[in-house]
Amino acid sequence: MPDVTQDFPIAVPPERVFAAISTPDGLSRWWTKRAAGEAKAGSTWELGFGPGYDWRARVTRCDPDASFELQIVSADADWQGTRVGFELTPTATGTQVHFHHLGWPQGNEHYRISCFCWAMYLRVMKRNLEHGETVPYELRLEV
Fold this sequence. Notes:
Blueprint: E1 4-10, H1 14-22, H2 24-30, E2 34-36, E3 44-48, E4 54-63, E5 67-74, E6 83-91, E7 94-102, H3 109-131
Antiparallel strand pairs: 1-7, 2-3, 3-4, 4-5, 5-6, 6-7
């Protein structure tokens, strides 16, 4: 099974990155159109990406300021059962982020598109945290 992985630095402390990846407001600033959920292992999240894309996920890992992972439980077939997660390591200048999206059923066109989309979304998150930039949901893949 193919996976998506990205490693990159962010010049803010781990607690700020953790808030961006584990709170509804944080996720809505860079990934989702809207989100609802609690940063607690076993809790269910609503991830809204527009009409026809109201997905659900379950928190499989939540270690404050260190790691957060969601398993997608209701989505399109390619995302169903995959795990989206982050490991955060403090550094002298901020945080090293280790991102993963594991368990893709195959390296098809949707997988390849998602590889690109993740790189763009993670860049939006980095720019938001480091510079306070906000990008409307509809334009996030254009920046």
